[in-house]
Amino acid sequence: MIDVLPWHQGPLTGLLARREKLPHALLIHGNQGIGKVDFARAMAQSLLCEAPISGEARAGGIACGVCDACNWFRDGNHPDYRELLPEILVDDDVEAEGLSDPDVKDKKKSKEIKIDQIRAIADFMTLSTHRDGFRVLVIHPAEAMNMSAANALLKTLEEPSARTVILLVTDQMARLMATIRSRCQRVLLPAPENLEAVTWLQQHGTGLNAAQAESALAMAGGSPLDAVTFAAAEYQTARKAFVAALSDPAADYMAAAQSFEKSDLNHIVTWLQTWVSDVVLSKMSGNVRHHVDEKQSIANIARHVQLTKLFRYESALRQARRSIHHPLNVRLLLEQLLISYQRAVK
């Protein structure tokens, strides 16, 4: 059986109820860390599952997990399923469509979905299906398609083959070409309720008690999959080291940028965004939402900051978020962000 996240059950069964009348392209979007790719894969497997044909479907038409089609899907070799993602997200031992270059391990892996990957699935998208059922293509993150790849996909979106479903997954919909967005039906996945997310965190091997799960979820902004990462000891050690620098406006941020240049840039920007959000909230209400263990340090900074400076800095962080998926000088970016932070809180 496939494990469908509990907050996905309603949206998934709702779509599967009209499987024979689905649009050819769905744009699955929502907050980061709520399992959008898991949702897309669960939907793909359920569309390809042969139990609905034999009358043995699970409730709501969700994949049975035991038929031949489900076994092929689980093993990564269903002939009517493809998944496109940037090279950097592909495991070394997994061959993704369009990424079979034997020298790819020796090259710097791309953070983009390229036109060659779209061209590589041309036959898959036009030839008859192997099992006389659906053909499913999942693209994630969809905003990683460069301009050439997005334009190449447009033709398929405009002239889809019969019984073809394309699932594009994004949490940055504004970065998608308007022509791509206009050719897809949007599916907004909601974040789970707090109690549902806390219960899930406790039941899925995190080893967290209720209070710890609440804290990790708060740090993740309500995103349970991110909360699993945030609760890890290694992650917490790195976070605490970074926010210790943020708590001291007189810190040497050039040295800090050097110290953290090999850290996960996505984590760094997340820590900055959530820290600044907490400073704003503390200034306005005396509360914090994300870094609850740093409430006093945040309050000390909040006493003398100007909100207009913080709001401008938040805009700079949003711009930085859009840049972290592309090649860049990490230390230079960190220096710019940390020096700008120092100016914003003085």
Overall description:
The protein is built from 17 helices and five strands. It is α/β, with parallel strands linked by helices. The protein has two domains: 6-188, Rossmann fold (3-Layer(aba) Sandwich), CATH 3.40.50.300; 232-345, Zinc Finger, Delta Prime, domain 3 (Up-down Bundle). A five-stranded parallel sheet has the order 2-3-4-1-5, covered by helices on one side. β3, α7 and β4 form a beta-alpha-beta unit. α9 packs across α11 (224-230) and α13 (253-260) packs antiparallel against α17 (330-345). The protein is globular, with a radius of gyration of 22 Å. The N and C termini lie far apart (55 Å). Mean pLDDT is 87; it is low at 92-100 and 102-106.
Spatial order of strands in the largest sheet? 2-3-4-1-5
* CATH fold type of the largest domain: Rossmann fold
**Total domain count:** 2
- Percent of residues in beta strands? 5-15%
Helix content: 40-55%
Mean pLDDT score:
87
The CATH class designation of the largest domain is Alpha Beta
* Overall geometry: globular
Compute the number of helices: 17
- Largest sheet properties: 5 strands, parallel
Radius of gyration: 22 Å
Tell me the number of strands: 5
Distance between the termini: 55 Å
Structural class: alpha/beta
CATH 4th-level superfamily of the largest domain: P-loop containing nucleotide triphosphate hydrolases
Entry summary:
The chain is α/β, with parallel strands linked by helices. The chain folds into two domains: 6-188, P-loop containing nucleotide triphosphate hydrolases (Rossmann fold, 3-Layer(aba) Sandwich); 232-345, Zinc Finger, Delta Prime, domain 3. The chain contains 17 helices and five strands.
